[in-house]
Amino acid sequence: MTTSAGRPAIVVGIDGSDTALGGAQWAAEFAASRALPLTLLHAIPTLEPGAGGQVLATAEAAVRSTHAELEIQTAAVKGAVATALAEASQSARLLVV
User: Fold this and answer.
1) Is the Cβ–Cβ distance between 51 and 44 less than 8 Å?
2) CA–CA gap between residue 35 and residue 63 (Å, rounded)
């Protein structure tokens, strides 16, 4: 995944677990040290309005609490987790799961 500025992002798979939040924090530190954007990605089989919003908001708040200056995007996508992560990895600088 790339940003509007065309820079490859560090992409993190978010599922609402403490492990995913730990991965997001590690990825945020990695992204910040290299001046790269961070994308928090949540994949779900059926995408309904607002789906994944709370999971992504929680992860974003956790990352912003330690990396307020970091460019962060969130994305909820419809599909199988493995497929969504594989597709995101094609244009990502790094995929964290």
Assistant:
1) yes
2) 15
Structure tokens at 71: 């460019």
Q: The tokens of 7 are what?
A: 């820079």
Beta-sheet strand order (sheet of 94-96): 72-78, 38-44, 10-13, 94-96
Rounded to a whole number, what is the largest CA-CA distance in the chain? 35
Q: What is the mean pLDDT of residues 65-89?
A: 94
**How far apart (Å, rounded) are the C-alpha atoms in residues 5 and 64?**
21
pLDDT digits (tens, 9 = 90+) for 38-62: 999 999 887 676 667 899 999 999 9
